Every structure is written in C-alpha cells, then in structure tokens.
Description:
Layout: E1 2-4, H1 6-9, E2 15-22, E3 39-48, E4 51-65, E5 72-86, E6 97-99, E7 104-106, H2 107-118, H3 147-167
Parallel strand pairs: 5-6
Antiparallel strand pairs: 1-7, 2-3, 3-4, 4-5
The structure holds zinc ion (2 copies).
Amino acid sequence: MILDLKQVFIGEKKSMPVDCTLDISQLEYQNNHPFIDPVRVKGEVSAESGIVRLKATVYFAYQCACDRCLDAVKRQMQIPIEHVLVTSLSGDDDGELKQVKHFKLVLDDLVSEDLIISVPSKNLCRDDCRGLCPNCGINLNTQSCACQSNKIDNRFKILEQLKQSDLQ
Length: 168
Ligand SMILES: [Zn+2]
Ligand SMILES: [Zn+2]
C-alpha cells in the first residue's frame, strides 16, 4: 500500500485519514511467517507547524511457536505507531524521521519494521505450559511419560543400596 501524501506536504490538506489493510504475510522473521493474517492500520497523517506526522494504531495477529512446548501460539495484538515524515533527510538522521520519497509513503515497509520490533520476546501457549519432557520429548500438556517417575525410582534404588552398604 502506497500513500500519496503530496496534498498534506504542500499544505492543501491539514490531514488525511489512513484506514487500510496490508498483506505482509510474506514477511519472514525468525524462520517464520508470523503475520499471516491481514494487518489493519487506522489513523491519520496530519501536518502541524510544518511537521507531517503519521499516527495510527496497527491491529494484527502474531503467530509463533510456544517457547516451551513448540505448539502454535496466535496472539491478537494492537500497537500505536507514530512517525515524523520528511521528504528528504538532512545530514544526521537519528532514526526518528522517515523519508517519504516523492511524497509517497510505502506503508507496508514502515509497518513491517514497527511490528517486528514490537512482537513479544516471550511466548507461551498458556502461563502454566508444562513444556516438553527433556528426556523423551513428549508434550507434557497433553500426555504424560514415565521419565520422571523412573528418575525417582532410581533415586530410591540408590538410597536402598546405601542403606544396605551401611548395614554391612
Ligand atoms: Zn506451550
Ligand atoms: Zn519423558
């Protein structure tokens, strides 16, 4: 989606509403395509005292694997975004300014960057996810395995052996 912001930049309009849906499902992040659903951007571009600013809320779904059990996790999220837009960057760009060449803003690129820095670094399918058994790899949320009880059995056996050697 490309927004033509010429009217705002040359002062013909004070503001322009932004309400669109982006397809960034091809975007790859951590060997994954986390934004498979359409992303909605709602807000406006406005000019105030010669400064053109984009302010919007981005509504999206973030899909990834649970940190513990690797099951798919899908989170509905929304983030506010705000950028000062300029037609040319002068010298030192501190990263706050977004250049809009020929008054045309490529919204997909801008939003993609914003989403990637806003996604949570910790993701669990549920707070008390029990994860995978480190021994046999079974998903402990849905199944149980004998690894843990075997471990306890082994400890008892060692205790038994110790007791017996004490007696001897
Ligand atoms: Zn999980
Ligand atoms: Zn196990």
